[in-house]
From TrEMBL:
Source organism, top-level taxon: Eukaryota
GO cellular component: cytosol
InterPro entries, per the entry: AB_hydrolase_fold, CMBL, Dienelactn_hydro
One example GO MF annotation: hydrolase activity
Family, as annotated: Belongs to the dienelactone hydrolase family.
Location of the Dienelactone hydrolase domain: 30-245
Pfam families tied to this protein: DLH (PF01738)
Localisation: Cytoplasm, Cytosol
Keywords: Cytoplasm
Originating species: Glareola pratincola (Collared pratincole)
PANTHER family for this protein: CARBOXYMETHYLENEBUTENOLIDASE HOMOLOG
Name under which the protein is recorded: Carboxymethylenebutenolidase homolog
Length: 245
């Protein structure tokens, strides 16, 4: 196998058999996965995928979970047709790959999705969640997009936007204690800057013993010791959305 000397630092998870309850749609130039709740609602959540892209079953599982909790959930392809990262790719090429996929340059696509949610789905209150690369994108949007009500950034890569902390909307940051990509000193520094500059509600939470991707990429039934934290992270995410949407 490729990369045996360096196992995938972003564990892709093991929900490959999950098909999803929603459907794929075309929204102008963007493909997207949409799942709607059984009852009508004017609340929607944009789900921003990680480096493995919009088709990752684990991320669709989370979109379906949002729909089961009463939200229209949409996971657009924010790579806009460019290939998602694959675990079999050579990690030595990752930085070059990332240069063409900037978490701070998704504003055009977000505007298209907001218009779709408003005009086609009747959404009036819209939030955003994101994982890893998508978590960094959430922080970017919370700093500048006036049309979103709230955001949840799950292990968002802090270094992408570490110098900016004047959030426009209530934001919840979920981190893992044993995250190889986000050292705890970065989390401490982010919290310090938010205390100094942030005028809206925010929360940072570190989940003990967890690793990068735990909320959406780990199965609840694989490691019993992780299950309470996976479930707690998901519950906390839903509770935050319920509070502000």
């Amino acid at each position: 196998m490729a990369n045996e000397s360096r196992p995938c630092p972003c564990d892709i998870g093991d929900r490959f058999d999950y098909g999803g309850r929603g459907q794929e749609v075309q929204v102008e130039h963007i493909k997207a996965y949409v799942c709607k709740p059984p009852a009508g609602t004017d609340k929607a959540v944009i789900v921003i995928h990680d480096i493995f892209g919009w088709q990752l079953p684990n991320t669709r599982y989370m979109a379906d979970m949002l729909a089961a909790n009463g939200y229209i959930a949409i996971c657009p392809d924010f790579f806009v047709g460019q290939e998602a990262w694959k675990p079999s790719n050579d990690w030595a090429t990752f930085d070059d790959w990332l240069k063409t996929r900037n978490a701070g340059k998704i504003d055009k696509e977000v505007d298209v999705i907001l218009k779709y949610l408003s005009e086609q789905c009747g959404a009036k209150k819209i939030g955003v969640i994101g994982f890893c690369w998508g978590g960094a994108a959430v922080q970017h949007l919370m700093l500048k997009n006036p049309h979103l009500k709230t955001g949840v950034s799950l292990y968002g890569v802090i270094r992408f936007f570490e110098d900016r902390s004047s959030l426009l909307h209530p934001t919840f940051f979920i981190f893992a204690e044993k995250d190889d990509h986000i050292p705890l000193e970065q989390v401490t520094l982010l919290e310090k800057k938010l205390k100094q500059n942030c005028k809206v509600d925010y929360k940072l939470k570190i989940y003990p013993g967890q690793t990068h991707g735990f909320v959406h990429r780990k199965r609840e039934d694989i490691n019993p010791q992780d299950k309470p934290y996976i479930e707690e992270g998901r519950k906390d995410m839903i509770n935050w959305l319920n509070k502000y949407l």
